[in-house]
Design brief:
Helices cover about 45% and strands about 20% of the residues. It is of the alpha/beta class. The model has no long low-confidence stretch (mean pLDDT about 90). The protein is globular, with a radius of gyration of 17 Å. An eight-stranded mixed beta sheet has the order 3-4-2-5-1-6-7-8, with helices on both faces. It has one domain: P-loop containing nucleotide triphosphate hydrolases (Rossmann fold, 3-Layer(aba) Sandwich), CATH 3.40.50.300. Helix 3 crosses helix 6. The structure holds adenosine-5'-triphosphate (ATP) and magnesium ion. Adenosine-5'-triphosphate binds next to helix 1, strand 7 and helix 10.
Length: about 260
C-alpha cells in the first residue's frame, strides 16, 4: 500500500467549517474505497461527537504518552470503522489544553511527527481537525502534515487571517525542514448572489493556491445536527457536488 498523505485542516478563526470539511472530505474518500484516519486535534471534540467515537484513551493522552516515550497501543486510541474504511483517533475530554502543558506539547512535537509517519503505512489518507486557535498544539498538527487545508469565509477579515496562517505554515516548514504545502482554500458557506463575493474571489485567487467553494447549504447544517455525512443525508445536494469536486480535483486516487 502507498504511504498516506497527511492533511491538517486549520484556521485560527472559529466556525469557518473546519470540522464540516474534515467530515465530508474524509467520509468522501472512505466512500470512494480508500482507507482514512481522522484525528480529532480539537479539544472541543466536535468531530468525535459527530461520529460518536470513544476509546479507552484519546488524543489528549496520546501526546503525554509520546512525550514520556511510552509504547502506544493503537487499539486503545483508535475507534475503528465509524464508517466503512474510516477510523478516528478521537478526543474525549473538553479540557485538552488545560490538561496538557505547552511544555509537553513541545516535547511531544517531534515524536508526534514520528507517530504520524508510522501511521502512514496503515492508511491512504490522514486528515486532522484542529481548534480555532494558534497555539503549540495546532503547530504540531501542521508540522506533522504534508499539506494544510484552510477553510475560510468570504470576508475581508479572512485576508489577514489567511496571511498569518500562511506565515505559520512557512515557519513550520522551516523549523521541520519539510516542505509543508498549502493544499487549498475552501470557501464554505459561499453565496453567489452576494456582489462582494466576486471581489473576494479576485483577492483570494491572487494567493496562487487552489480555491474551492462550498455553497451555503441547509444540508450541511442538517448533516451536522443529525450526525450524517453529506453523502448520507444529501448526496444529490449542491453542497455534496461541491465537496465531490474537491475530492476529484484535489485528492487524486492513490496509485
Ligand atoms: N456549506 C455550509 N452551509 C451552511 N452552513 C455551514 C456550511 N459549512 C459549515 N456550516 C455551518 O457553520 C458552522 C460551523 O461549522 P464547523 O463546526 O464545521 O466550523 P469549525 O471551523 O470547525 O468551528 P470551530 O472553529 O468552532 O471548530 C456549523 O453550524 C455548520 O453547520
Ligand atoms: Mg471545529
Amino acid at each position: 500500500m502507498s504511504s498516506a498523505r497527511v492533511f491538517s485542516v486549520a484556521n485560527q478563526k472559529g466556525g469557518v467549517g473546519k470540522t464540516s470539511s474534515v467530515i465530508q472530505l474524509a467520509s468522501g474518500l472512505a466512500r470512494r474505497g480508500e482507507t482514512v484516519l481522522m484525528i480529532d486535534g480539537d479539544p472541543q471534540g466536535n468531530l468525535s461527537l459527530f461520529f460518536g467515537a470513544s476509546t479507552p484513551k484519546d488524543f489528549s493522552q496520546l501526546l503525554p504518552a509520546l512525550a514520556r516515550g511510552e509504547a502506544v497501543q493503537l487499539k486503545e486510541y483508535i475507534h475503528r470503522r465509524v464508517r466503512r474504511n474510516l477510523d478516528i483517533l478521537p478526543v474525549n475530554n473538553k479540557n485538552l489544553k488545560n490538561e496538557i502543558p505547552d511544555t509537553i506539547i513541545h516535547e511531544a512535537g517531534k515524536i508526534f511527527v514520528t507517530f504520524i509517519n508510522s501511521m502512514k503505512e496503515k492508511y491512504q489518507w490522514i486528515i486532522m481537525d484542529s481548534s480555532p486557535s494558534n497555539s503549540p498544539l495546532e503547530r504540531i498538527l501542521v508540522q506533522s502534515s504534508d499539506a494544510v487545508i484552510i477553510p475560510l469565509e468570504f470576508q475581508l477579515f479572512s485576508v489577514s487571517g489567511l496571511e498569518s496562517i500562511l506565515e505559520e505554515v512557512n515557519m513550520c516548514s522551516t523549523r521541520t525542514g519539510r516542505d509543508i504545502q498549502v493544499h487549498s482554500l475552501i470557501f464554505t458557506k459561499a453565496e453567489n448572489r452576494l456582489n462582494r463575493v466576486k471581489t473576494y474571489r479576485d483577492v483570494f485567487s491572487s494567493f496562487k493556491i487552489p480555491v474551492y467553494e462550498i455553497c451555503k447549504s441547509e444540508y450541511i447544517a442538517r448533516s451536522l445536527e443529525k450526525s450524517r455525512t453529506i453523502w448520507e443525508c444529501g448526496p444529490a445536494s449542491y453542497a455534496a457536488r461541491d465537496y465531490q469536486r474537491i475530492l476529484d480535483k484535489g485528492f487524486p486516487v492513490p496509485v
